[in-house]
């Protein structure tokens, strides 16, 4: 242990007026601040910020760090994809309001803005943030923005029971909540107000005015998805436009063995168990897909599984690292979207393929008349969808 001698008046009388951070640098890890003694009369707090090393290499290089284009954290993939595929369409989300199409450049920018917006509203490295929402483009931006800020996200779908969501939120020690819609939050609000501590709420879709307060309990600050994006955009503009603005922060690179996310099991054998995944865990899956999926730039994938499903999540990250286009669909819309978008790949689980196989087998084993009727209706349906697609394109 390093022994620090006591400071006396004689010490100061012979000491220079400027002190360096070491060895008298104090790190307050619980609040992510370091205290630097710069003079006898001035003490400055410098906030520690974590960032994805390749994605935000410009911030790290400004602090004397050595940067490279090697992926160390999952959000690093967005810088690579933005450089390679820029104006190509990355995703299509047709069923949310508003319907959204984003290029790779736009997606990278949204993730960077969301990450910075989280820092502005007070998210600190290694804090847990819950995302209780279904698959959408905004889920992806929130997920990657959280990781890029150095936070750890805790994921689950909107259709889980209130008891399960509350148990996951408490067990993970989450400090805030990103929720799908006002309807979902209103469904879970009563137990969350009484039993959970929420520093703030982020609403991915919908309006804040639709949220219902619970009796006389004070609602924590609520931010819409676009408000977080705008806060981040303004802050990033300030950081890159002013040298002084950067002096309040020290940027540290996220490491591969840092925790990226907590994924909870189905809970069929009791309460859901939290599975810890590091950035390296997820990057390994992304790179492994390259050996088995011959995806090419411009290929189209159809996405229908919940994003907190580990297979879906790794598959999505892989898709975007290849320059492919992802289209969001649902079980209800799957039949129409297969015909409409004609994807090269469908990300799914065996149950869906088994269902499709059983339908095909029933048609094949039917009498000649039934088979002709079924195939006729399928052809008519496909022709109708193609005509509808052409009409929508030209109308």
From TrEMBL:
One of its GO terms (cellular component) is chloroplast. One of its GO terms (biological process) is fatty acid elongation. One of its GO terms (molecular function) is long-chain fatty acid [acyl-carrier-protein] ligase activity. Gene3D superfamilies: N-terminal domain of ligase-like (3.40.50.12780). Transmembrane segments: none annotated. It comes from the Eukaryota. Residues 81-364 form the AMP-dependent synthetase/ligase domain. SUPFAM superfamilies: Acetyl-CoA synthetase-like. PANTHER family: ACYL-ACTIVATING ENZYME 16, CHLOROPLASTIC-RELATED, LONG-CHAIN-FATTY-ACID COA LIGASE (AMP-FORMING). This is AMP-dependent synthetase/ligase domain-containing protein.
